[in-house]
UniProtKB/TrEMBL annotation:
CDD domains: PA_M28_1_1. The keyword Protease does not apply. Pfam families: Peptidase_M28. Residues 292-500 form the Peptidase M28 domain. InterPro entries: M28_fam, PA_dom_sf, Peptidase_M28. The keyword Signal applies. This is Peptidase M28. Keywords: Signal. GO terms for molecular function: metalloexopeptidase activity. Residues 1-21 form the signal peptide.
Amino acid sequence: MNVKLLVSALLLSGAAVPALAEEPVFDAQAVRAHVTFLADDLLEGRDTGSRGYDIAASYVASQFIALGLKPAAADGSFFQKLTVREARLDGAPKLALTYGGKETVLSDTAQLLVRPSLTDAKVSFEAPLVFAGFGFDRPDLGFNDYKGLDVKGKIVVVLTGFPKGTPSELGAHLNSDKAMMAMKRGAIGVISVPTIEDTARRPWDKRVAISDGPAKGWVGADGRAFSRTPGIKGGATLNPDAAAPLFAASGKPLAKILAEANRTGGKPKGFAMKARASLSYAQTWKDVVSENVVAMLPGSDPRVADEFIAMTAHLDHIGVHGKGEDTLHNGAMDNASGVATMIEVARAVAKEKPRRSVMFAALTGEEGGLIGSDYLARNPVVKGEVTGLVNFDMPVLTYMFSDVVAFGAENSTMGKVVAEAATKAGIKLSPDPMPEEGLFTRSDHYRFVQQGVPAVFMMTGFEGPGEKAFRSFLKDHYHQPSDDLKLPFNWDAGALFAKVNYYTVMGLANGAERPKWYAGSFFGKEFAPRAAKAADPVK
């Protein structure tokens, strides 16, 4: 068809010419510009509550203003303020283990790691020990680790991670809920022992190296830090070498238990240990004010304008810490790259005026435990309902990827939209290549999932050079000072990542129906039991 002749004929006839939608062009240099600013040394690693973070937040707000987005915070600004508590150990913790007629005291980080308490300035408790396998209390899902065990008023000892062969997203969720399950059984403390798989992935010395930062959480209007497990007085992680004598005293060799846990489908049985433990430690607190940067784009269709599609990316990183020559953690890939692509997606979406409204949020405190997202999910800023969420976190942009992984895609109708978006962008959608990492519960989207919102979290895929590049970043640069602008960024990959996320967001915002959990989705049943469900897709 000769489009020029057709348009000319229509103009001459006086007929109205429908606007031809133009494909958005994503500028690689625009992505580079955002990352360059956000990962600059002057921002000192964008730690939550720091001056550098505040500068980054003002930068993102200025971008939202330039895009014509509306402020979404309750005070009419772009900043949803929250108080974040930082807790640091005051002196060395003390774990006294009594077994075999003697007491063994552990306090050195070579043997013991303790997370400071956000709710109690001093922690001290003593109780018998009970081993509960992986610590899963979900008989409905085939996990019955507490069967026959009495843990009321006791300290539960559990293995880290989840049984091999468990679907990664289900396993990641249950792993993050261990303290909750222990509390519901009446336990007052939790001691974790790393599995063989966990130790291979994160050796003890590396675990120690990343434990020097404070524990963090948001503080409510009553001045108390929010806690999902108020009945758990405290907990610790025990080096397997230090834990071995404890298990031996109960006639249960730890090596044998760990070997069972390392077998596909292996679920070590629990037992009452012939031991007691007392755990004591103190902490100092520092409360800082930080903010989520929140904006919104009103929907163009009044019938669905109160249904919001959310875009989120964490703005914080881990600041300045450590003992090496370079202690500044710029967080170029984690997560300046995610914020940069979110801004560029927002730029394209703002021009299109989709049917549903869109919320944009650059979040604080992700590195401290998904703090800003939890606060936003529990304290909504939009006058409507968030019906679906797309999260941007640490796309590795050192190679031109040909596939993406969308965590959570199989749980809701969002999966079909993501698959169509990938095809439209000229790439493919791949399954989770690292199920052992449990990534589904480790980024901000998950706090919205826990409030019943379907969500996806996309990362660049493993096809071609992808696996080598991604694993290299995780091994050598993740949460290291080397995550900076010296990395070999492929800015065209940043533009492509923005494109596939744009197609996803627009597909959701313009869809005939709001996103729905699939009927068979564990997360839909767990967190949105009364929500309307879609029929499971035919496999």
